[in-house]
Design a protein that fits this description.
Blueprint: E1 2-11, E2 14-24, E3 29-33, H1 40-48, E4 55-60, E5 63-64, H2 70-77, E6 80-83, H3 95-106, H4 111-124, H5 140-152, E7 158-162, H6 170-187, E8 190-195, H7 198-204, E9 207-212, E10 215-220, H8 231-260
Helix pairs in contact: 3-4, 3-5, 4-5, 5-6, 6-7
The structure holds adenosine-5'-diphosphate and magnesium ion.
Length: 262
């Protein structure tokens, strides 16, 4: 379980996070939901320690992280797997080298064990035998899968994914969401997924925290989200639906155009 207490962050004169508290549960896919620019990525970076909050603290399973001693912070860091926005694979490394990388950095596992672990993780994300491929040879969805395999390779306790399905077509996006949820439950990981996509809410939102202009305005499960009395959340859901419908119409028009041109 990850707990955050009263997180504040200001850049210059712009208040980005304004006193956010909450709990992210173990074995569940916890979503940080909100429109673009509302502070989701900054909050995620505060949680993993890439950004230091001005005020507030984070605990991982009861251990204080923010402001704690370096060795305690490092020990927690070792248990964190991250899937960054845009998957961020090392382009000059093969799939195998990408996944092996955190094992080399974070453990003293011998080579043959590392390769076993790489193969286990590749199998788990449905990419057996992709070891020698280069990232440039992979589709967007496959890159995300490799990113997930790399994140879970060191046997993470906590998994953070920033917009894991951005840039993917809707079907691939759902598959990636589902994979994250399955892995979370299978290994009992505490997972936090940043998203602005209502599809993810419906598919995988065990627990959702809705952010709006740096504040937490609502928290609950996907079953309750349609019944919230929060105007900003209802507007967000409505706008999401309009955008999805508009995208669908656009895709249908493009398809029609392709048919016409033979
Ligand atoms: N390192 C930074 N320095 C200054 N401003 C930042 C920095 N990181 C993020 N911001 C600002 O904080 C706000 C929230 O950003 P972000 O958390 O990335 O939003 P999102 O919800 O889309 O992930 C934005 O206005 C962004 O410009
Ligand atoms: Mg972001």
């Amino acid at each position: 379980m990850i707990e955050i207490h009263n997180i504040h962050k200001t850049f210059g004169d712009k208040k980005v996070l304004d006193g956010i508290s909450g709990v992210f549960e173990t074995g569940k896919t916890n979503l940080l939901l909100g429109a673009s620019g509302t502070g989701k990525s900054v909050l995620l970076k505060c949680i993993v320690g890439l950004i230091k909050p001005d005020i507030g603290s984070v605990t991982f399973d009861g251990t204080y992280f923010t402001n704690n001693k370096l060795d305690i912070r490092q020990e927690i860091r070792r248990k964190i797997g991250m899937l960054f926005q845009g998957s961020a694979l090392f382009d000059s490394m093969t799939v195998e080298q990408n996944i092996e990388f955190p094992l080399k950095m974070l453990s003293d596992m011998p080579k043959d064990e590392r390769l076993d672990r790489v193969n286990t993780c590749l199998k788990r994300v449905g990419l057996e035998n992709a070891n020698k491929k280069m990232p440039s040879e992979l589709s967007g969805g496959m890159k995300k899968r490799v990113g997930i395999a790399r994140a879970i390779a060191p046997n993470c306790t906590y998994l953070f994914c920033d917009e894991p399905n951005s840039g993917l077509d809707p079907l691939t996006a759902i598959k990636i969401d589902e994979l994250i949820k399955e892995i979370t439950e299978e290994y009992g990981i505490t997972t936090i997924v940043v998203t602005h996509d209502m599809n993810s809410v419906i598919e995988i939102g065990d627990k959702i925290m809705f952010l709006y202009e740096g504040k937490k305005l609502w928290e609950g499960t996907r079953d309750d989200i349609m019944d919230s009395n929060v105007d900003e959340l209802n507007d967000f859901i409505f706008a999401n639906r309009l955008m999805r419908d508009a995208k669908k119409v656009e895709e249908e028009e493009e398809e029609e155009e392709r048919r016409r041109q033979g």
